[in-house]
Design a protein that fits this description.
The chain has a single domain, classed as dinb family like domain (Four Helix Bundle (Hemerythrin (Met), subunit A)). It has eight helices and two strands. It has 174 residues and is mostly helical.
């Protein structure tokens, strides 16, 4: 990690290229299933000081992991909202107050990684049972100003993982 990893585009400003059809679902499911373990292996190689150091008042690496844990329930809730035919999806708390308040830098890294793996496995199990027609059901996402299907939410979750992985790699190389 000696080379500086670039800082990613701010999450709220990222462009998204949502999938056209369900043929992309298997690769998204593979990502969702394997990402937490891959991240845990990456984090094991980073010193405790680097894991818990905030730079410029922003989250530490370990707080990025905590944030991923905090948001694991949101896609499950949104999937249920789509299946129930709700008008709009529950918005994310863009202030991320929960992550700031939980003091993740004081928590055990291995416990956090296990929690992320367990919570993600619940999401993977939920998503694995859907038919193609269910994957294409949708509800309106207010922040993005578009309808989002379960397939889109799966892609969105993968992109969220990628963003935080990029941030972690940037911080680790700083």
């Amino acid at each position: 990690m000696s080379e500086q990893h670039p800082r990613p585009i701010i999450w709220a400003h990222r462009p998204f290229h949502f999938p056209e059809d369900v043929s992309e679902m298997p690769s998204q499911m593979l990502h969702l299933k394997t990402f937490p373990s891959h991240l845990a292996l990456t984090l094991r190689e980073i010193s405790k000081d680097k894991l818990t150091t905030r730079q410029d008042g922003k989250w530490s690496i370990q707080e990025h992991l905590g944030h991923l844990i905090d948001l694991e329930d949101l896609p499950t809730l949104r999937v249920k909202e789509i299946l129930q035919g709700k008008d709009t999806l529950t918005p994310a708390d863009m202030s991320n107050k929960n992550t700031w308040d939980k003091n993740y830098n004081e928590k055990n890294l291995y416990g956090l990684c296990e929690s992320f793996i367990e919570r993600r496995n619940k999401l993977v199990k939920l998503l694995a049972g859907f038919s193609d027609s269910q994957l294409l059901k949708w509800t309106y996402h207010e922040r993005l100003h578009r309808n989002m299907s379960i397939l889109d939410l799966t892609y969105f979750q993968c992109q969220h993982d990628h963003y935080h992985h990029e941030m972690i790699m940037h911080l680790a190389s700083s």
